[in-house]
Structure formats: C-alpha cells, structure tokens
Amino acid sequence: MGEYVISNGEIKQFVIYWYQAHGRSIPNEYVAKGYMVTDAIRMNRTDGALVRVITQVMPSESLDSARARAVSFTQQMAPNLPRFIPN
Length: 87
Prior knowledge:
alpha+beta, 2 helices, elongated
C-alpha cells in the first residue's frame, strides 16, 4: 500500500492507495502499468482499479491515529473488493 498526507490550509487527510488487478494488489503505479502491459499480451485484458481510502486528520488528532483508522477500515473493506473488481 502507498500512503501519503494531503492538505489544504489547516485541513489534512491521510490516504492509503493501491492498484488492484487480476488478483494482485500493487502499491506502485509503474509496476502496475508493467503488469497491465503483460496482462494485455497474455490475457488481452487491461482492466483494473485504483483503490483509495481517505480519512480526515482531525486538528486534535495524531497522524498515527488517523492512519490506524484508515488501516482498520481497509482491513474490513478489502475482502469485499473481488465482488467489484474482476480477477
């Protein structure tokens, strides 16, 4: 998983993201594109998804706390992804 913090003035958000395609979770965009080319050649398929989880970092909250919330949600949500993203 890739992680970063985005902000607009005083508002901060913590982001977790990855690329999901054909049963693979890939945190790097360039590696995902490499797999996409390989899949296009092998399977004639280029489908996949960017999965992104964002949570606000409250003013009185630590970044670690926001990260823990995002990770917890991701762990609960990720098992449901195969219903929406084709293998």
